[in-house]
Amino acid sequence: MAMFMMHITFIFEVIAAAAGLVALHYAAQHKAKLIKAAGIILVVFGIGSAACTWYYAAKYFFMGHYEHAYEFNITMEGKGPHYHCSGSVGD
Q: pLDDT tens, 33-90?
């Protein structure tokens, strides 16, 4: 599930960077300074957040978080209805 969420996040970041490139192209044609600024912001944040996403995706991969569909790592103690879920899934 974590890998799936990483892929969805990355697609949105690519869309943001692509929208920024479109805005920069449109701004160059119409000499629009505000659209150019918005395009630069979209490209910079799109690429920056994509780099951040891939960094943490690699970090979590090497930590073993993608071995199970859901990673809980929760130790619950007590007598409540969900306290049978202690430990990680698959252990």
A: 999 999 999 999 999 999 999 999 999 889 888 877 765 555 555 555 554 444 444 4
* Higher-scoring residue by pLDDT: 73, 10: 10
Domain enclosing residue 64, as ranges: 1-91
Start-to-end CA span in the chain (Å): 18
Please, are residues 89 and 20 in contact by the beta-carbon 8 Å criterion?
no
C-alpha 12: how far from chain center? 8
What is the DSSP secondary structure assignment for residue 74, as one 8-state letter? B
Nearest Cα to Cα of residue 50 among 22, 21, 16: 16
Residue 60, judged by CB atoms within 10 A of its CB (0-12, 13-18, 19+), counts as: middle
pTM (predicted TM-score): 0.72
In terms of Cα–Cα distance, which of 90, 47, 11 is closest to 3? 11
* 3 state DSSP class of 86: coil
